[in-house]
Amino acid sequence: MEIKAIRGFNDILPDEIGKWQFVEKTAREVFEGFGFSEIRIPIIERTELFSRGIGEATDIVEKEMYTFTDKSGNSLTLRPEATASMARAYLEHQLHTFDPVAKLYCIGPMFRYERPQKGRYRQFYQIDAEVFGVDNPMVDAEVIVMLIHFLERVGLEKLELQINSLGCRKCRPRYREELKSFLTKKSFQLCEDCQRRLETNPLRIFDCKVETCQKAIADAPKVLDFIDDECQNHFGKVKEYLEAAGLTYILNPRMVRGLDYYTRTAFEVVSYQLGSQNAVTGGGRYDDLFKDIGGLDVPGIGFAIGMERLISLLPKDKEFVQYPHLFIAALGGETNREAYRLVNQLHLEGIRAELDYEGKSLKSQMRRADKLKARYVLILGEEELKKGRAVLRNMKTKSQEEIPMKDLLDTLKAKLQQFSVKINRMGDLASEG
Ligand code: ATP
Ligand code: MG
After folding, report:
1. Which of 16, 150, 190, 282 could form a disulfide with 30 if both were Cys (CB 3.0 to 4.6 A apart)?
2. What are the tens digits of pLDDT across the range 329-357?
3. DSSP states of 333-366 as a string?
4. How far is the CA of 95 from the centre of ligand 2 (A)?
5. Is the pTM of this model over 0.85?
6. Ligand (nearest to CA of 283)
7. Region 122-151 average pLDDT
8. How much distance in Å is there from the Cα of 204 to the middle of ligand 1?
């Protein structure tokens, strides 16, 4: 039987990889410009890190984790998100002793056992950025500004920034009770999951996609009406700083985020191009997470961007695939050795060159060069080679010229310079000349 990939686990093939590399490269550039450093954390952690960090009564911990027992009997989990691991690493390596403020980012796969569908997979990639050690609302705004700047740099449009404040552990319990008693009266309208959530975690009901639950919650009390003065004040400052940075936002009093560790500021960026899985990214403040995982009292704020969803939103008309710069068509005899010598030399110069390995006819080599979308073809004929010359064909304009072999490298470098332009922004992508 043929072995296939597991459901919900995707291969990212060479014709898509250009987009991934572009997004990752842009993230690194933007985040590092904002003072963030990369951190790499393990794919697997002790289950307890997530159950304590994310919260027992969340969808992730209740039903989405890939948890298994290893050969020593430890309960381990494939990371469903990165924040808890980053907090663990900060504590474990005492990064606060170097500087209390840590600005960190991380790019990599996450694992959640969800029903696979468009925009929802079991292995998916996230770009995460977190600031540990500051509770000043200035940093909430700084993180959001960086996020929006990044999304615009990669070329996303029709985005909406939604913000809310979830209060803190002092004021939220009162809201929770209020919400619970409101929803208890409507519990007949709630789905089975939400009936249970009503007891364990009523705020989660806001996230339920079932229509009757959405109706039940439509005119529920709003968390913003219950948060205490300190939280109000903090949120007010976040809004001021966002406005000072020129960002527009929408207050979404029903946005609660799916993880329990959030306190105060919560935000999401949604795209109207995405349909029902419309959240590209979300994040918020989590001033209790560090204590929950057994560490110091360190505030934090950050976000996670879903890369698959982000990539599906990149402008369709941009070229991300790297094509060979040159295809060398050798026509037998001595020319094959020359082609081999040339291709090695070009590779060492960073020029993407491809050749034929099977002694095919010129016609079929030209067909392959065309299929590979090579920018130029160098035709090496025996007669020409004896005279120290070869024919260079521009595959777009179809024009051909004879060039001296000794000038080949310089000629190619000059012609290809335009293709080695650094891909910084979408607009800078080299176009065929
Ligand atoms: P959703 O409400 O769509 O389930 P979430 O609140 O569970 O999202 P987060 O935990 O905040 O998502 O993760 C941040 C981002 O990661 C999401 O905005 C989304 O883009 C992406 N994401 C989350 N789960 C998946 C998944 N199973 N497959 C692909 N992307 C995902
Ligand atoms: Mg989810």
Report:
1. 150
2. 999 888 999 999 999 999 998 889 999 99
3. THHHHHHHHHHHHHHHTT--EEE-SS---HHHHH
4. 30
5. yes
6. 1
7. 98
8. 15
